[in-house]
Amino acid sequence: MEKRHLSIFIPASITAETKDLRIKTYKVGLIGRSAAIFKADKIVVYNDNSDEKEVKFISDVLTYMNTPQYLRKKVFPISRELKNVGILPPLRTPHHPTGELAVGDYRQGFTIKRTKKGTIVDIGADRPALCREKLSINKVFSFRIVKLSKKDILIEPDTPDFYWGYEVLSTYKDLYESVLEVKPDIVVGTSRYAQPITSILDEVKHKIKNARHLAILFGGPYSGLHELIQGRKNIIDLEVNTVPSQGTKTIRTEEAVLITLSAFNLFLDAE
Q: How far apart are CA 268 and CA 224, in angstroms?
């Protein structure tokens, strides 16, 4: 069966409500954790008239979360923006291993240097591994362990068929242009003014049944989806309210992500 892809679109304005860097980091962390729980494989950060620095900040925090702990110091230099990453919740996904190495295991690795034999790679072991292919340096790739001895660790580029974290895409474009760039099969919009998801269950099931790439769009604290794509060609195939009869005046984007992915997980898991 062909793998289904799930992308979520997040506005850069989610961090605009506070100047506290610690709170900003925490809010982004909740989104990364929710994405991992429900196996979203792409998080698209779009610019809804926000400072481009916010786009980069959100993307950096999400990418930091997704990077295995043993590679973070190599991938991310010390910076003010990442000084609060200690409060981020761990993903505990398969690409963040905690056990001993074994042949057949998959690991993400950071390419250190090229030699005559191939590429030296840090995969979080007690010694570097060797990949016989010559790869770009200072990059993160996925590998499978093919040989393990007291002397050598031999790996080859490979990606498993199970969930392997998410990709972060910073488009620096508006929502409309971002969706066009990603090109999903089915686009779902979330809005408190849409029909309750409980009243259109059959339509939801029918629309997403054969989708190989499902995208779910989220608005920000200041603008909903309709304001963000006003005057443009409609790109939303299905619009839903995943919190009917909400008890609070507003629902934060990080809360909407968790709620909505939880609801759609029931449909996706049932297939």
A: 25
